Amino acid sequence: MTYDEIMKSLEELGTEQTKKTFIRHGAKEPLFGVKVGDLKKLVKYVKKDQELALKLYNSGIYDAMYLAGLSINPKLMTKEDLQDWAEKANWHAVAEYTVAGVAAESEYALELAREWMKSEEEIIALCGWNTYANYISITSDEELDLAEIQSLLEQIEQTIHEERNRVRYVMNGFVISVGTYVQALSPDAKKVADQIGKVHVNVGNTACKVPLATEYIKKIEDKERVGVKRKTCIC
């Protein structure tokens, strides 16, 4: 399918109800309102065409941007491509899922995560924290910098409640990621989860809730799945 054909399909798949739901969660116009399940049906038409995927993201249309993230080959992404994606992310879902998922599976995962986490721009910082959290979920413990991750847990413990709104959300997610995916540091993550307790995030007029890190990690423990890595973080 061509770019124009993909766009036509997205427009046809979109609904006003889904569009309103996305906007209520923070999405910015333009968007068609296509459910993720329907987006996944189009992946096979984009997956082997890197240039098409890049063009879709550059459209600035949320549905096309998300489809690009599902379809792109992260290993072919340049650092410049990823930086461009982070800068063009126009709401938190694009930053936390599309950009972070692709960046985590790229050759520049740690380099960019470390840069982005320090950004004064909230949307870029979201990309950074979730890139690192995703990277943890797909990388063997032997390849991880455990000392750095432990230091980041300490930073979260000390600063999370004074951080920017969505940064609090992704920091909490980072603690959960360490607690569930890094066997050696799971006890440390649990201690931090206990210390930070409930994390308050303004999620607007939605039913979304911030997961309680202690409870989430406990559920994974009960299933005896602590340390079990994911095959991909793109979804």
Topology as a string of helices (H) and strands (E): HHHHHHHHHHHHHH
Number of DSSP strand runs? 0
The radius of gyration computed from the alpha-carbon positions, rounded to a whole number of angstroms, is 18 Å
User: Which class of secondary structure composition applies to the elements?
Assistant: mainly alpha
Largest sheet: none
How much helical structure, as a percent, in the residues? 55-70%
User: What value does the average pLDDT take?
Assistant: 97
Structure annotation, total helices: 14
Q: What is the multimeric organization of the chains shown?
A: single chain
Distance between the termini: 22 Å
Percent of residues in beta strands? under 5%
| Shape category | globular
- Unreliable stretches covering 5 or more consecutive residues: none
Task: Give a short synopsis of this structure.
The protein has helices at 3-13, 16-25, 36-40, 43-46, 50-58, 62-71, 79-88, 92-104, 109-117, 122-138, 146-159, 165-181, 186-196, 213-222. The chain is mainly α. It holds the Pfam family DNA_alkylation.
